[in-house]
Amino acid sequence: MLAKHVVSKECEESKHRYCAFSYSKWQEYRIFEWLELYEKHPQIEMFAKLNLTWALTTGMNYFRWSKKGLAILGLESKNELKYLQACGSIAYYRECKEDILKYNLDTYDKFIGYLKMRRNNMEINKKSLKYMMDNNFNIYFYLDYLRFAEKLGLPKTSKILYPQNLRESHDKLEKKIQVIDSMEKQEQIKNRVIKELYKYRFGDNEFIITPANSPLDLINESKELSHCVRTYIDKYAAGDTSIFLIRKRENVNHPYYTLELRRNEVIQLRGKNNCSPTDSVVAFVNKWAKKNKLSGAYIN
Question: Is the separation of the CB atoms in 24 and 48 below 8 Å?
Fold first, then answer.
């Protein structure tokens, strides 16, 4: 394969000397494709020198070849050129031209940020665009913040919509939401225990079993036993599954085994680091299950 400077030299010594292939940024193997295009549309010399060769591979059908100069691209003046270059797409430029000029989207980063806002149905105005630029167009982080504000019923004032410190404000609202969610889950779990699960409390001389009473119970269970039952808080609160805590009678405050019950069937029974239950724990669970007419993998 010829080196690009050799290819360019060959072009300079032929009728294609003005083809501007050296400006094209195309790979050397595409020289003949370029020359064929140049013979048909010599205007591509201008596009190459204006750093617009991307347009030749992404939007040829948008060119107006019967026009002259920049009008081929649908531009009305040279001032528009920087916006088209920033946009990187003739199709997008034509679709968004009014906003691009209105908001001076003269860099690729600005245009991509604008496009993200548009695709996420965000309100676009000079203030919101500037705010997003100041925050590096962290769209999804900002949308999270707005969702938190809406859930908390905060007024849509400028101070709320455009906080001075987005990350700090986001984190503050997130903590408030977590507290509210925790309180809601706490209440849901409490109601389930009272109405549905309290009747399953059981014990013998060695063990006791009781339903988890709160999200904190599941969090502590995960922490002490190094398993993932904390991720079941939402399902437990919603009634999709039920979580029971097994303790040694001599140490009722210390997590020992955790049991999942779903539709009257024992689904899981795990201890420290997800270990399988001991024979004595299985025997205890069998007694409990038979008393409550339950089924599952651990029931004889």
Answer: yes
